[in-house]
Amino acid sequence: MLSEVLLVSAPGKVILHGEHAVVHGKVALAVALNLRTFLRLQPHSNGRVGLNLPNIGVRRAWDVASLQLLDTSFLGHGDSAALTAKHVEKLKEVAGFPKDCVDPEHLAVLAFLYLYLSICQSQRALPSLDITVWSELPTGAGLGSSAAYSVCLAAALLTACEEIPNPLKDGEAAGRWTEENLELINKWAFQGERVIHGNPSGVDNAVSTWGGALRYQQGKISSLKRPPVLKILLINTKVPRSTKVLVANVRSRLLKFPEIVAPLLTSIDAISLECERVLGEMAAAPTPEHYLTLEELIDMNQHHLNALGVGHASLDQLCQVTTAHGLHSKLTGAGGGGCGITLLRPDRETEAQRGRETRPRPHS
Ligand code: PMV
């Protein structure tokens, strides 16, 4: 068991194209943000395990001895692929949480308990430790805050239990895990996401684990080769929403109107592929035509996402305001509020800067 303090951080993400469609096996393109979540793990010998989440006002502690007595056989033994909705219900019961709790505070604690009890069951006794997690990412805004939280927890707990080595070498300020270790972190982080979101595609935790710009499809992750530098304005509508509910609504719409909704998902897939192709071309020499194509793809996808039912009046307003400045925007993440992205053309930067003075206000 680790004896020194461990500091871990993981980034949030922006989905360029493919949100919702990715849940149904289609391609998504996503990039890591330079807004991060941080975790500090302090090992103890006081017989307690504590979780502090100052951003959402959570401060909980448990006696390790009482957690040790819980019947957690349903969690399986390191089989991180086995988590189901039934397991989450059982976990709520074990944690003494109401069956119908869906608020971010309860779900964050549940994800912690799940990862702590599952990862640490490899130890002879559950470890005594204090974990504090804080973030630059707004919660429930489509920027992958829950994935960054799950990635930090998985990385810290796997390191504390020596399932993966501490990558920090003597005298170095920062370290990075090997690909193999990152795969294990990502696998467990996906389970944390499942506790919080029910049926996530896995794109958020993949980007948060590996960083950079990724193409994601059904668990297959590849880096975008030499992505061009794009200037993207991130705007937070500050309208809260639940990814879990929005994903479930799209599923219901697909079941109700398969002939109508399946082609929308196929079309979003084609938009992601076309965007990937254009980004590849732009790496060599970006032209105004490339920007024109990217703008058209953004507009078409935004209409598709509206047709899937994940739009919101605040996002419509965002699109109208940016259109008035000659810019193109779409929602990013689950929609229903949250954040939108606006592509800034290099030649229109001054106009875009003026756009920042209008409402809704940019998040960063
Ligand atoms: O809004 P976020 O950050 O939770 O992103 C959700 C992305 C979805 O495609 C809507 C869901 C998923 O699991 O991929």
From TrEMBL:
Reply yes or no: does the keyword Cell cycle apply: no
Bias (Basic and acidic residues) ranges: 345-364
Q: What is the lineage of its organism?
A: Eukaryota, Metazoa, Chordata, Craniata, Vertebrata
Q: What class of enzyme is it?
A: transferase
| PROSITE patterns for the chain | GHMP_KINASES_ATP
A Pfam family in this protein? GHMP_kinases_N
User: What segment(s) does the record annotate as region Disordered?
Assistant: 342-364
What exactly does this protein do?
Catalyzes the phosphorylation of mevalonate to mevalonate 5-phosphate, a key step in isoprenoid and cholesterol biosynthesis.
Q: Which cofactor does it need?
A: Mg(2+)
**Where does the GHMP kinase N-terminal domain start and stop, copy by copy?**
123-212
UniProt KW keywords: ATP-binding, Cholesterol biosynthesis, Cholesterol metabolism, Cytoplasm, Kinase, Lipid biosynthesis, Lipid metabolism, Magnesium, Metal-binding, Nucleotide-binding, Peroxisome, Steroid biosynthesis, Steroid metabolism, Sterol biosynthesis, Sterol metabolism, Transferase
One GO cellular component assignment for this chain's record is: peroxisome
The UniProt subunit note reads as follows: Homodimer.
Please state the pathway this protein functions in, per its UniProt record: Isoprenoid biosynthesis; isopentenyl diphosphate biosynthesis via mevalonate pathway; isopentenyl diphosphate from (R)-mevalonate: step 1/3
EC annotation from Swiss-Prot or TrEMBL: 2.7.1.36
Stored Gene3D superfamilies: 3.30.230.10, GHMP kinase, C-terminal domain
A GO BP entry: cholesterol biosynthetic process
State the organism named in the record.
Answer: Bos taurus
Q: What is this protein called?
A: Mevalonate kinase
Instruction: Spell out the SUPFAM superfamilies in the cross-references.
Output: GHMP Kinase, C-terminal domain, Ribosomal protein S5 domain 2-like
Could you tell me what reaction this enzyme catalyses?
A: (R)-mevalonate + ATP = (R)-5-phosphomevalonate + ADP + H(+)
GO molecular function (one): metal ion binding
| InterPro entries for the chain | GHMP_kinase_C_dom, GHMP_kinase_C_sf, GHMP_kinase_N_dom, GHMP_knse_ATP-bd_CS, Mev_gal_kin, Ribosomal_Su5_D2-typ_SF, Ribsml_uS5_D2-typ_fold_subgr
